[in-house]
Hints:
The complex is a heterodimer.
Chain A: E1 2-13, E2 16-27, E3 31-35, H1 42-49, E4 57-62, E5 65-68, H2 74-81, E6 84-87, H3 99-110, H4 115-128, H5 144-157, E7 162-166, H6 174-189, E8 193-197, H7 201-206, E9 210-215, E10 218-224, H8 225-230, H9 235-249
Parallel strand pairs in A: 3-8, 3-9, 6-7, 7-8
Antiparallel strand pairs in A: 1-2, 1-4, 4-5, 9-10
Helix pairs in contact in A: 3-4, 3-5, 4-5, 5-6
Chain B: H1 3-47, H2 53-66, H3 69-79, H4 89-114, H5 118-126, H6 131-161, H7 173-184, H8 187-216, H9 229-235
Amino acid sequence: MSLIEVKGIRKSFGNNKVLDGINLSVNQGDVTAILGPSGSGKTTLLRCLNFLEKADGGILTFDGVDYDLGRIKHKEIAAIRKKTAFVFQSYELFSNMSALDNVMLGLTIGRGISKEEARKTAMEMLDKVGLSLQADQYPIQLSGGQQQRVAIARAIAMKPEIIYFDEPTSALDPELIGEVLTVIKNLASEGMTMLVVTHELNFARNVSNRVIFMEGGHILEENSSAEFFANPKEERTKEFLKNISSQHDV
Amino acid sequence: MSERIIGILTEGLGKMLLASIKVTIPLTIIGFACAMLIALIMAMVQYAKVPVLSQLSRLYIWVFRGTPLLVQLFLAFYGLPKLGIVLDAFPCAVIVFSLNEGAYCAETMRAALEAVPAGQVEAGYCIGLSYVQIMAKIVLPQAMRTAFPSLSNNLISMLKDTSLAAEITVADMFMAAQKIVGRTYEAFWLYAEVALIYLFYSTILTLIQRRLEKKLSAYNSREAAPGSRRLSNESD
């Protein structure tokens, strides 16, 4: 059974149709990469799924419960967000808190877990992303890669059923991309369900098991990642893959 | 300097310090505390775009920033009794200073709130916090850090502006100086003396500001803050 299923999700900014009736389903344990050129609606799709943008319409089925995205209620949003986590391109660690406090905040204030227990969980999570020694540092004292790993620790601390990643490595120095991707890869091997908007073809090829290619608010092609890279069906997909791969050859 | 002047200045110092402790400092502290409360409410109402209230808040700021403080004091103390509203001088001054200063601080705080990146709020929602929790734990602490230097400035100018309260019969430090000048005609020495006392108090505030700013800047600096665990670990 799929963990989430989206039917006909629509979103416009003014006259600009950003999502034009997209259908999508994600199974438990899937690592789905969403590829596509800028402006294709990838990020908007992810943001709509976590209600950072309000979709104009569509149905989201989460854990077997249907939600009408066009008229979702605050309570329903809160209920869904309890099961999801989001990792931002720009990390968005709370700049007024240490790494540890960043990871603890959702547990203590959000979930009402005791401080000692939250601290224990948070330290475990920081350890998992290799940053337990940096627990007391403020975000500004950390490198971009470290900040993003803390952001991932903050996400997994909430024990989500799915994590949405919005271009998690796009703001990073090339040298620092690897450490973040390794963390995501480890999560994949533990069976975490993830939906990852990315420009990293190698990540899509090697870590994700499914790939979605988007353009102009539509899904153009969708396949297992092995099939997607070995035998892209659409002309546009071939062109996109060729363009991106040739950049690496320059 | 003659012995007479030294005598006058010594007497003046005692009277002015006393007036400052009895009036100038309480007026500054109470007035500024109320101003901060007003400013916080006005800024939050605008930040959250609460309908009607945020327009009222704009109107309030427009009026109180657009008219002179001295005129506001006169209107409240000499004008309002004509409408049957009679206020004692000190409470009247507290109210006018709070409202006037509140208008300026509200703008400072609103700007500071809006300077907090939208992503910080989104990240708060994503870990399951409510709007109120996000404001309390993330947005306000960051905004206060941004607003702190400007608010300190406002406090220091308010301390000096309290001298205007003498014009509505509040027996503050400046009025104490005026009274002795009226008796001794030593305008230069006494007004210089009162100026120095204001300078003394502003300097204390500036020093406190600097110290607090350093403390607050912990998360804005790449260096570990003094006394933080990281630094003490390294020196172990």
